[in-house]
Amino acid sequence: MDYAAVVLLEILYMIAFLALTSAGLAVVFGMMRVINLAHGEFVMVGGYTTIACYQAGLDIWFSMLVVAPLVVGILGLIIERLVIRFLYGRMIDTMLATWGLSLLIVGLVTLIFGNSAVSVQAPIGSYEIGQFQMGGYNLFIIALAILLLLVMWLVMRFTRLGLVARGAMQNRDVASSLGYNPERIYMWTFTVGAALSGLAGGALAPLTGLLPSVGGSYIAKSFITVITGGAAIITGTVSSALIFGTVNQIVSFASMPVVGEIAMLVLAIILLRLMPQGITGRFFKNSA
Amino acid sequence: MSISSNFSAGRISWLWFALACLVLLIAPALFDVNTMTVLLIWALFALSLGLMWGYAGILSFGHAAYFGLGAYTFAVASMNIGESTLPLLLAMLIPALLAAVIGAMMFYGRISDVYMGVITLVVSLIMFKFINSTAGDAYRIGDARLGGFNGIPAFPVLNVPGDPELQIYGLGLYYVVAVALLICYLLCRWILSSWFGRVLVGIRENEARIELLGYSAPLYKTAIFTVSAAMAGLAGSLFATWAEIVTPGLFSLGQSAEVIIYTIVGGLGTLVGPMLGAIGLGFLKLLLGEQTVVDNSLLLGVILVLVVLLLPSGIVPSFVRWRQRRAQAAAARNKASSTRRRRRHHGEGT
To answer: Are B188 and B132 found together in one domain?
Structure first.
């Protein structure tokens, strides 16, 4: 019974992890049809920002939930203005340019912070389920992911901003003819997406530890979560995070964590082959 | 499109080819042989991607999967067999088989560019993760332990076919690699000048039209993907025998990124471009590896971003275009001045 609870919590954590790390990429892909291959580096920069602020004496919650999204959001804004905006509509070129950016950011962070691992203590201690020791911070991640998705859904569904965003997503020309400047919408979308990635990086920093190259391990997971989810941002992310998180953890418990990851990746290939438009291209067609 | 159709017509200037042969022949006298060898291996790897991406429009975000698989196949097979001829063939065959399966799955599934990018990337990632986790005695193929993160050291290197005692290394290996590169280049040229190559370029330009003409696009794409993977596998096996060790890093995203950068910087839609890109940037990478002030990936990243933004067709096509424009301008000038002269003659006559 205890063991079942542990497994369930781990599955929930994995789902939350996937949803949290993919949210930024999903916003950018869903709204702009841009694949940002520097996404993993955005997450990584969020983590480094958190640790640097914490070491400079700021409160860890403040650095994680406020400073990290802010810094990465600004970084995203700069990158959008300097690079991405010239490449709208050229999908492969955008992927290549953002891949270049990812290498560039890894190089910069290596120059600044060095190539050794840094970490920070989780601000929540552990608790016990029967004989099992569980990290309390995992619960915070689950709560944060739920809260984030809820807020995103509320904003998209009930605010004027969300309405404009959904309109621009469905038909850029119509939104433009109604007086909303698509270029401006894209700019802010990219910034918000980057800020979400920064938030994810900040929140996960105490769990994962950081290396300049850590972005590479996020990008593949978020990439498959978003692409398999399809165009609808929230529904897509949630549904594919559910599937991949569950499969990953169940296989991991049955054998080894590596096998779990491989199972998840193989499943991604199969799903993409069966549903080339993603889950939301097939089901839940009219969702946000 | 006139530039690329010029290239894809499969014409080859034998004068330039002879010159390249000569350069390759005397290069060891001028540069370090070991460096030259690895640069040519990267050139071969970039050629394999350039053939597929530049002419059939298929971009693999995880081409290192086939490079690494070739290297590992060579290492494992040469440890088990002891003689290197068969392993070299296997190192082309096995990546080709994998590519045929994955290519058929993608292309017959009519999967779009982005999804293809994901799948090729994920395949290389799966192999990276798998090979990385194969430490310990349980993971062995015959006599070869896969060795996980540490890779496989100390396998028999390339030898003269039929005689395992006569190992090829140093200058000998350099010439083997150079000849392999030239043969592969000629093979690519031959493919592109055949009907097969023409259909491929047609697919790149307009897939629907080619299908309506009765060609099966998935079949051709799968075929070129397979050929490209075999070539990448060959490059991988040569790299294995050069480095005398294979590690999971061969499958890494960085490796895939590098070959993409070589190809796009050199120039898409040419065969020479990717090779020159690999040699030039590879040399730069080796130079940068010797110092610690500027991080290597920082510079590669900057180059990639700048090339995509400013020179999206790559260096070689831009150069060719510049030369053509100049030749045209010169021709126009000549024509103009000659007509002016003629007019003057007429004027004097009347």
So the answer is: yes
Selected residues 145-164 of chain A with any CB under 8 Å from a CB in chain B: none
- Write the pLDDT tens digit of every residue in B192-225: 999 999 999 999 888 889 999 999 999 999 999 9
B58, B116, B122: best mutation site toward chain A, by most A Cβ within 10 Å?
Answer: B122
Whether residue B306 lies inside any domain: the answer is no
Q: Which of A261, A145, A240 is nearest to A196 (CA)?
A: A145
Report pLDDT digits (tens) over B80-90: 887 888 889 99
Measured distance CA(A202)–CA(A207) in Å, rounded: 10
The complex's ipTM works out to 0.81
Q: Does any domain span residue B307?
A: no
Give the residue from chain A lying closest to B294, CA to CA: A111
Same domain? For B251 and B165 the reply is yes
Report yes or no on whether pTM surpasses 0.90.
Answer: no
Please give the Cα distance from B132 to B150 (Å, whole number).
8
Give the A window 260-279 contacts with B, CB below 8 Å: 261-262, 265-266, 268-269, 272-273, 276
Residue A277: pLDDT over 80: no
**Residue B104 resides in a domain:** yes
One domain for residues B200 and B127: yes
A243 shares contact with chain B (CB less than 8 Å) = no
Regarding whether B255 and B187 lie in a shared domain, the answer is: yes
> Residue B59's closest chain A neighbor by CA?
A92
Q: Residue B138: list chain A partners with CB under 8 A.
A: none
Do B212 and B108 have their domain in common? yes
The C-alpha atoms of residue A69 and residue A49 are separated, in whole angstroms, by 9
Q: Centre a 10 Å sphere on the Cβ of residue A177 and count the other Cβ atoms it contains.
A: 9
State the DSSP H helix or E strand holding residue A215, giving kind and residue range, or none if neither.
helix A215-229
pLDDT digits (tens, 9 = 90+) for A132-182: 777 788 888 899 999 999 998 898 888 888 888 888 877 878 888 888 888
Are residue B122 and residue B93 in the same domain, yes or no? Answer: yes
The pLDDT confidence band at residue B170, using thresholds 50, 70 and 90, is: confident
Domain count, chain B: 2
Q: Residue B341 belongs to what domain range?
A: 314-350
Q: What is the mean pLDDT of chain B?
A: 84
Q: Is B304 part of a structural domain of the chain?
A: no
Is B253 in contact with A218 (CB distance < 8 Å)?
A: no
Residues B89 and B145 in one domain: yes
In the beta sheet, which residues pair with residue A135? A126
